[in-house]
Amino acid sequence: MRRASPLVITIAVSLGAACLLGLGFVAQQHAAYRQPLDEMLRPRLLFDLMRTPLWLFGLGLMACGQVLGAIALREADVARVEPLLAMNLLFALTAAHVVYQEPFGRMLQLGAVLVCGGVALFLFAGQPHGGRLPDPLSPRWLAALPVVVVAAALVAFGLRRSLKVKAILLAGSAGVLYGLQDVLTRNALLTFDHGQNVLMTWQPYLLPCVAVVGLLLNQSAFDAAPLQISLPATTVAEPICGIVLGVAIFAERLQVTPAALAGEVAGLIAMATGIVVLGRSPFLAKPGQTALQGRN
């Protein structure tokens, strides 16, 4: 019997991860959207959600998806895995439409396809390759500092904005931190593969801190707006941030031919257009929050 090729296995595992992530996001958003808006960005939001079985189920699905994603990243380069993981947006929006009957018209479908297709095109055209495991104390790790600054700036800028803009910026900030989380996870896996003691480096201890803050930002975005508003920015920011950090920290290289640059620019334009299309959705009112609708 003929065995499946490593590439086919990687694609299957990545799509399985994307499916679990998408379903997990649907369950989490459905639970978080019912929480009061004054719990946004407060640890109390996570503590209250921990008492919600549906949210815990969604968190479990997301954790399983992240495990499958880590397995795929261990077996293949980022450029092959991340575009497939970004398909979680399509799984999530489709599931939300089927299970919760949330509106998912043609414009929203177009926006979702543009976001996912733009991510895939950008990463496919860039084709990161090469790279090596950096020393735990390498100056290359200073590249993580601007990422943290960008995440904080997105939160600060969104605090006094409309509910829609706030949800998008919080989701983008979560995506940036998720990209850093992916890099830290990859570093831990490569360190283990090289036979080194993972616990003797500082990166694994930063990983849960980044994960928890990213989770709080993500749930706050879910609390503010429906899935089609609160998830796309995360879907875009995570793989792009992961690629940039992969180049800066792991010394991966991107294609810089005219065709590759054209593909990368086209991908960015498609992503931006998709976010604008999804951001124009009128379905933003929260039950019991009519006083805030005028801010959108």
In short:
With 296 residues, this protein is mainly alpha-helical. It has helices spanning 6-32, 43-49, 53-75, 78-85, 88-100, 106-126, 144-158, 163-193, 203-224, 227-230, 232-250, 258-279, and strands at residues 129-130, 252-253.
Write structural notes for this entry.
With 296 residues, this protein is mainly alpha-helical. It is 72% helix and 1% strand. It has twelve helices and two strands; from the N terminus they run H-H-H-H-H-H-E-H-H-H-H-H-E-H. It has helices at 6-32, 43-49, 53-75, 78-85, 88-100, 106-126, 144-158, 163-193, 203-224, 227-230, 232-250, 258-279, and strands at 129-130, 252-253. The protein has a two-stranded antiparallel ribbon. Helix 6 (106-126) runs antiparallel to helix 12. The longest helix has 31 residues, at 163-193. The protein is globular and about 45 Å long. Residues 288-296 have low confidence and may be disordered.
Index terms:
296 residues; two-stranded antiparallel ribbon; mainly alpha; 12 helices; disordered C terminus
- Helix content estimate: over 70%
Distance between the termini: 58 Å
What is the general shape?
globular
Average pLDDT over all residues: 84
SSE pattern: HHHHHHEHHHHHEH
**Low-pLDDT segments:** 288-296
Sequence of strands across the biggest β-sheet? 1-2
Percentage of residues in strands:
under 5%
Major sheet details: 2 strands, antiparallel
Instruction: Report the C-alpha radius of gyration, rounded.
Output: 19 Å
Q: What is the number of helices?
A: 12
Classify the secondary structure makeup into a structural class: mainly alpha
Query: How many DSSP-defined strands?
Result: 2
